[in-house]
Amino acid sequence: MTEKYSILSEVIHERKSVRNYDPTYTIAKEEIEAMLVEATQAPSSSNLQPWRFIVIQDQETKMKIKGFGFNQQQLETASAIIAVIGDTEAYHNIDEIYQSNYEAGNMDKESMERLANNAKALYPNAPYDARLNIAAFDAGLISMQLMLIAKAKGYDTVPMGGFDKGQFAEAFNLDNRYVPLVLIALGKAASPAYGSTRLPLEKIATFV
């Protein structure tokens, strides 16, 4: 076992869904920003990065979200609530993203133009439901990455899909292209999380 794997495995096994947070603990905006920047190393479909974030630290705003979040206590007591928003029209960023990769030396000009043109032919013409599914899938990837980063830094998290997404979108005046997908409570645990078991591998995996 390599040292890197040992550290990663420890973080994975230590991360639990915490719902009881220390309401007096604060996390600096700069530290949350650093975690988000690192989390964006997650992969995404055609590298379109269809994720946006709303970081809620204001207590009054957290209480408003709690009202349409089934009164989950962590929405009130966590240091911050990070809303992961899916961009169903991420194709508007194709030129910026591929030009940036070209300028960074990650691809030659021919590859940049080919990949950008392929993406432009595919994504704007895809049905809305397909684009929403892509955004939701990619939101799952970056959410898990963010939670592991938080745990490695000594913080606790819990992801929540149970909230009124329509009310959330209205409260934050989201354009129709943006869909709230996940809320992540971030903070310091006030009490240990419950343990949880997993189904045995032979029940969930088939090798052929």
TrEMBL record:
The keyword Cytoplasm does not apply. Keywords: Oxidoreductase. InterPro entries: Nitroreductase, Nitroreductase-like. CDD domains: MhqN-like. It comes from the Bacteria. Residues 12-188 form the Nitroreductase domain. The keyword Oxidoreductase applies. Belongs to the nitroreductase family. This is Nitroreductase family protein. The lineage of its organism: Bacteria, Bacillati, Bacillota, Bacilli, Bacillales.
